[in-house]
Q: What sequence folds into this?
C-alpha cells in the first residue's frame, strides 16, 4: 500500500474522532538537549492539545479496520513507525515522563533484544515484557512469529506467545493496537474485528514488582525498565537509600525463580560500572547469572542516560557484564582511592589539616595523561604544566601523585 494510503487510514480514523492527524516531526536542538519536541511548521494539528487517550481511541478504530482504506496497512504505517511515541511526547510533559520512566525502546534496540532472546527459548515459548509501554519489544518479537491464514487466527496464535504488563491502561491498549496492525501488515489482512481490548489477554495492566501470574508463565523476558532514582518500600540486601529503579525491577524479575529465566535487557550503564552497585552485581552473579555487554550510548535525546544491552541467563561459565573488547588498562582507581561525594567544597567547615583534592567543576579538562617515574605523576599533555587544585589555597599548584593524595 502506498504511503499516502497508509496515512489516509489513520487520517480517516482521526477525522471520525474530530481531531487532526499528527504528521512529520522535526527534532529541534531543544529536543536534542532533552527538552520539548518541535514539529515542522504548518504540518502539526495540535496533538499536544488533546488528551493522549483521544489519540488511543482513534488508533483503536484504525486497527479494528472500520475505516476505509486501500487494502491492508504496510510496515510503513504511522502506528508502526514511531508516531504513537511522538504523540505521547507531545501530550505528556517531559518531567512527568522522566518521573514515570516512560521512555520507549525504539526499533533498533528492540530488534537486538528480540533476536538474542529468540535463540534462548523454545519455539512455542511465552515471552513477556514486564514493563511493556507501547509494545516496542513485543512488536519486535512478534515480527519473528509465524502468520496464520487470517487476522483472527494470527492474533490467537500470537496471544498464546506474548505477555506484558504496564501500569497505564492507555499504553496497554496501544500495545494491542500496534500488534494488530503488525499482524495486518504482515499478512495483508483487511478483516474487521469487533474488539481490541479482548485480544492478547496476557498483555494487561499490572505491576512488574508484583508476583504476577502472567510473568510466571513466561519462559523468557524482554526488558526495558525505568531508569530513574527511587526509594524502595523494602530495603534490598544489596543497597540502601535511593537506587536506580532498573536495579529494583531487575532484582524482582530474577528473584522469584529458583533458576532465573533468560532476560534480554537494555539497562543503564551505572548498573555494570557504578561502584555503589558492586553488591548488586555480586547478588546477580551469586544467582548464577552471566551476560555479555554491548554498549549503546545515550538511550535517546530525551533520556540523559547511557545504556547497554545484555542477555542475562543462568550458566556455569562466563562472567557478568564483562566487556570482551575492552583493552586491559590502568585506571585512576588502580592508583588512587576514588569516592564520590566524600568532600563537598562549599559545605566543608574548613577545619583540620589541609589535603589536596579534585573538584570536577574547577579542574581543567585533560587532553591526555602520561605516567612519569615511580611516583606516577600525571601532567596535562597540552600545556605540560601542573594542574591547579583547590586545597584550601586556590592558587596552589601541585603534582597529582599517589603519595600525595
A:
Amino acid at each position: 500500500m502506498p504511503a499516502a494510503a497508509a496515512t489516509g487510514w489513520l487520517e480517516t480514523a482521526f477525522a471520525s474522532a474530530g481531531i487532526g492527524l499528527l504528521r512529520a516531526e522535526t527534532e529541534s536542538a531543544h529536543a536534542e538537549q532533552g527538552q520539548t519536541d518541535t514539529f515542522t511548521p504548518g504540518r502539526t494539528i495540535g496533538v499536544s492539545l488533546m488528551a493522549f487517550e483521544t489519540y488511543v481511541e482513534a488508533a483503536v478504530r484504525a486497527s479494528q479496520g472500520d475505516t476505509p482504506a486501500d487494502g491492508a496497512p504496510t510496515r510503513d504505517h504511522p502506528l508502526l513507525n514511531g508516531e504513537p511515541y511522538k504523540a505521547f511526547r507531545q501530550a505528556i510533559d517531559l518531567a512527568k515522563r522522566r518521573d514515570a520512566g516512560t521512555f520507549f525502546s525504539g526499533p533498533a534496540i528492540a530488534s537486538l533484544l528480540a533476536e538474542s532472546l529468540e535463540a534462548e527459548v523454545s519455539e512455542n515459548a511465552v515471552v513477556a515484557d514486564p514493563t511493556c509501554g507501547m509494545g516496542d519489544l513485543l512488536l519486535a518479537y512478534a515480527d519473528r512469529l509465524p502468520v496464520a491464514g487470517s487476522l483472527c487466527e494470527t492474533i490467537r496464535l500470537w496471544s498464546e506467545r506474548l505477555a506484558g504488563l504496564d501500569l497505564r491502561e492507555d499504553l496497554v491498549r496501544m500495545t494491542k493496537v500496534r500488534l494488530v496492525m503488525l499482524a495486518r501488515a504482515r499478512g495483508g489482512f483487511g478483516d474487521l474485528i469487533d474488539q481490541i481490548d479482548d485480544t492478547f489477554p496476557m498483555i494487561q495492566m499490572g505491576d512488574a514488582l508484583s508476583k504476577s501470574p502472567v510473568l510466571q508463565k513466561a519462559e523468557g523476558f524482554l526488558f526495558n525498565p525505568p531508569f530513574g532514582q527511587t526509594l524502595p518500600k523494602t530495603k534490598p540486601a544489596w543497597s540502601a537509600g535511593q537506587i536506580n529503579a532498573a536495579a529494583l525491577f531487575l532484582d524482582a524479575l530474577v528473584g522469584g525463580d529458583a533458576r532465573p529465566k533468560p532476560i534480554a535487557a537494555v539497562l543503564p550503564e551505572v548498573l555494570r560500572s557504578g561502584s555503589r552497585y558492586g553488591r548488586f552485581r555480586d547478588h546477580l552473579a551469586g544467582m548464577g547469572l552471566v551476560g555479555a555487554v554491548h554498549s549503546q550510548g545515550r538511550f535517546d535525546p530525551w533520556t540523559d542516560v547511557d545504556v547497554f544491552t545484555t542477555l542475562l541467563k543462568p550458566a556455569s561459565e562466563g562472567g557478568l557484564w564483562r566487556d570482551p573488547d575492552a583493552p586491559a588498562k590502568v585506571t585512576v582507581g588502580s592508583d588512587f582511592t576514588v569516592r564520590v561525594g566524600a568532600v563537598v567544597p562549599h559545605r566543608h567547615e574548613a577545619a583540620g589539616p589541609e589535603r589536596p583534592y579534585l573538584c570536577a567543576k574547577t579542574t581543567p579538562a585533560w587532553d591526555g595523561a602520561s605516567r612519569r617515574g615511580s611516583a606516577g605523576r600525571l601532567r596535562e599533555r597540552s600545556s605540560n604544566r601542573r594542574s591547579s587544585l583547590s586545597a584550601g589555597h586556590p592558587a596552589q599548584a601541585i603534582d597529582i601523585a599517589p603519595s600525595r593524595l
Summary: The longest strand covers residues 303-314. The first helix runs from residue 3 to 16.
